[in-house]
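Reading a protein record of the kind used here takes only a little practice. The record below shows the convention in full:
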Amino acid sequence: MEIKTLEKVSFKAIVECFLAAFSDYFVAMPQETSYYEKRWKAAGVDWKYSYGAFDQDKLVAFIIHAVDYRQGKKKAYNTGTGVLPSHRGNKLIKRIYQKAMIDLAKADFNQIELEVIKENIPALRSYQSIGFEISSSYKCYSGEISLGDISEQAFELREIDKGEFDWELSQGKYSWDYQKPSLVSADYKYYYLVVHGKPESYFIINATGNIGQFDVLQENDNAWKRLMKAIASVSNTVKIINVDESNASKVQILERHNLRNTVDQYEMLLRI
């Protein structure tokens, strides 16, 4: 078994291994190669710092890392880890990380981040054995927004160019794919919800209804209701990945509008 970077591996071979490794995963994974081209480009994947295990030149396990300076630290973000079913039980991810951490330390990285589904106990234990620690808890939602009783107060829904969006308005904690550097590299639309001439809330959404960020600027129940109404006017069916579980107001408003909690995840980090 050889451990090396994915720099010289074809994109097709990486996607094929990825889909095979996730064929029995907790949630169904998109099958289109174009999805992964866009997703990994937006995340900032660097194949020089992504690694695979090769059995007689066949890719059988992988760790795909995006890299960036965020929150004042040089970070590697694990945007995909997998092992072919035929090669599980050989501690390949641990072996890959032994190689990766040497390279990342030499390149002055500060930490590695990843997310893991809470129910995926084998993966959770594997990461903990490597040295990863739980840093946050996230909840994921999807479904049709049920509006119910909505305040009749007038508001303006204003779409703006991403270059005009005031990132100082961004509230709370978001995971890697939904932080500014990832969002501006992807295809999202940006909206302000304006009341009495001032932004009251905002949301960022793509053409498939995936919400990158959303929040009210001042905690107010009617403001949350108006925001959900505004989102529904753009896309009534939505998907919201990795809502910070500690944000009780946001969690409550999503559940109150009958969005389904599809899966829960831990964010984990490893200091190098």
Summary: The two ends are 25 Å apart (CA to CA). The first strand starts at residue 2 and ends at 5. Residues 141-263 form a domain with the Aminopeptidase fold (CATH 3.40.630).
